Input
Amino acid sequence: MSVTSIFFQTLIGGIGIGSLYALVALGYSMTFRSMGLVNFAQGSIYMVGTYFGIIWYQGMVMNLHVPYAVAFLIGLLCNALLGIVLERIFRPLAKLDLMLMLLATIGLGFILDNLFTIIFGATGFAVDSPLPNTPWNIFGVRVLPQMALLIGVSFALMIGNQLFLSKTKWGRAMRASAMDFEIARAMGIPTNRMNALALSIGCMMSAAAGILAAPIVYVSPSMGVAVGLKGFAAAILGGLGSVPGAIAGGLVYGVLEALSAGYISSTWTQAIAYIVMVVVLMVKPSGIVGEITVEKV
Amino acid sequence: MIVVEDLHVYYGNIHAIKGISFEVQTGEITALIGANGAGKSTTIKCICGLLSPREGKILLDGSPIQRMSADQVVRWGVGLVPEGRRVFPVLTVDENLEVGAYGRSDKRGIAQDREKIYEMFPRIKDRRKQYAGSLSGGEQQMLAIARALMSKPQMLLMDEPSLGLAPLLVNQVFEIITQLNKDGMTILLSEQNARSALEIAHHGIVMETGKVRFADTAKALKENPVVQQAYLGVG
Output
């Protein structure tokens, strides 16, 4: 293999894992921008969403083996409902002290993790790939079909979310209530419902990430711990609360991880990715994309 | 018409509004004047549903609205021009107006009203694709008024629309308010600038430390020696 194809091979791997982080980071950012709350249960929500979808595909419910695409949609739908429930739980929290908010979301994460350990056991399982396991060869770079699917669907979801926020009436209303909750309400926007919608979208993104990654990673009740932390790091890296920032942060973080594993040492992957994150934040505390501030003309 | 009856509002344990009663007649401008901290903004917030009173009633054409949330009150035809303008800074001017029309579903009517409003405010029309946060203070005030008009209100609550504006712009804002009223809009105007407010208002309410001190016609208030001394800077 040539040097360039090794580089691109690593890069593709990084983009794959990066789009996973980006989807989880979107969950953090959607919650933060709408409710001003950092939801440390996001990693657990990713795990829960994965189970909600994959159990149907793997025949763990009444031995049903539904097609992968249907299982994917079931997982998204269940997590969307979870988002609506979470908004109701978080609503009183959003008015509280930051410390209480953090404790409550961390606690919620523990509850979900333990609940799923009780139901499904602590040991995980591998998921059969819905697509062939032989990699495609694209200009000398080998790409697993499932990895291509992960990247493709993630990008489609992220673009779809961006279009929804920028072009539709509900998207506009969500942005308005994220900017000024009180005035949005005085303009007739049911802000609590907008928050529920934002949380639902975030939870759906996490479920999508988990179900798409399931055939590549290993599914277990603790699968959300590392991804949750990295998704948070990615959200911070991109600028917490910014939607394009979450995407950029996720991709940059994933690629950094892959490059440092490929070229330096896989033992140092985590440390290197975190160091870069810290350096970026020292130079630009608002993150890569940061808050959109308006210049006066 | 709005009737406020024995309204009491608390912030925690602080008794901010201590049993006020007044009326806003349909088709009139009613000025709510008083010093900073007199309770003008609190009263406005209470009427539009952003605060709920502990006691008392607010009747809109006879129906009680004091327990409604703000997103319901706007559907009853009460528009808000908030203190400090508070336009959505990272939405464009167009988008701000669209958000103002959130409760409406007649797409064509919204588009027509938007163009009509742009005719009234040509300065913000030129900037319709810009972020509202990039506008000057005066333009933002125009946008805040325009945004409130997009919900097709029967009545406007205006909280300190002249605050922080240059004198020339203050005059412009008062002209707009007069024009809106001539076109049939009922207006409750909260103002520290008592002289200008009473100049265009039909009735006035003078608030002091959470209570109504005087409620009378604007003409009578302008001739009231106490009001003259405390609020109009006469004698």
Summary: The CA atoms of residues 30 and 203 of chain B lie 5 Å apart. The radius of gyration of chain B is 17 Å. Chain B has a mean pLDDT of 93. The beta strands of chain B are 2-11, 14-24, 29-33, 55-60, 63-64, 78-81, 155-159, 186-191, 203-208, 211-217.
